[in-house]
């Protein structure tokens, strides 16, 4: 046991007297750890924040007035388009919405990682969801 | 002190050492001479229990190297030219580290340290890191490490390799001083002039075989005053 302790002590002294080794094994990881832990999420957060603040154009067809207002309030810019789905497919708009027989259809490009299109889609979905909830609430309140 | 009888070492088909027989007495420097690849290092590795012989036997201080390796190691010091010690420890720390394995701690270590420091005149190395030492100073630490437990048998294998003239001289002086203390020394080298200076008896090794053994004076007479000449003549005769 004493021999093991002796070898341990020798190795410890050897390591702690090697400045490069101490830096690369102890100090460098402490410096790099926060960068790897918080760096990507900070970058992502900034990207999302930028996309949230920007006003994205939305191709719309047959949307009622209240839906258009809801989209504008959500930081979107609705533009009338005869074929929102086609416009999104062609990449002309990041998101499109069609209203038909009481149903909202949302078209968006979701593939390819986190893109501005996804932010725009989530904005549209959020706005329409809020509209739906408001409508449901008003309907309940109007009940005798 | 050292008895080697019919010692052989084979690596597959290759015979590194063949039928080697010699003795070394206390207070004697025995020079093992030969070119690179002659079998000198293999012989010393067998004597220091690092490898086992294929045939024959060898005893160090009365203990068989194959059957009682730990007893042999307690009585043996080994130094070779390429030996390294831990770079970032001081000379004192290196010696304390190795002394511990021989049970030298506390007062016993201090006494051993004082003795070896005086013998090798290495006071300046004790508190300096090995990394900051000259080659000669490092070699002193290597030697001190080997003799700290005062072994009666010392094996030196090309111990002056890479040393400058002063360090080499210091090492040769140390060999003479260690012999004066009654210890048996095997001095293995291919530098004949070193053997001329320190050896009492010499042997010539060629292709794993002992082609000559005798006193230094006899060998010098054989080579008309030159060990190198004696070696060349003996090798030619053996061939």
TrEMBL record, chain B:
Protein species of origin: Thermus scotoductus
Database matches in SUPFAM superfamilies: P-loop containing nucleoside triphosphate hydrolases
GO molecular function, one term: ATP hydrolysis activity
ATP-binding in keyword set: yes
InterPro entries in the cross-refs: AAA+_ATPase (IPR003593), ABC_transporter-like_ATP-bd (IPR003439), ABC_transporter_ATP-binding (IPR050763), P-loop_NTPase (IPR027417)
Protein name: ABC transporter ATP-binding protein
DNA damage among keywords: no
Domain ABC transporter: 2-232
Keywords, alphabetical: ATP-binding, Nucleotide-binding, Transport
Record-linked PROSITE patterns: ABC_TRANSPORTER_2
Gene3D superfamilies: P-loop containing nucleotide triphosphate hydrolases (3.40.50.300)
Domain of life of the native organism: Bacteria
Family membership noted in the UniProt record: Belongs to the ABC transporter superfamily.
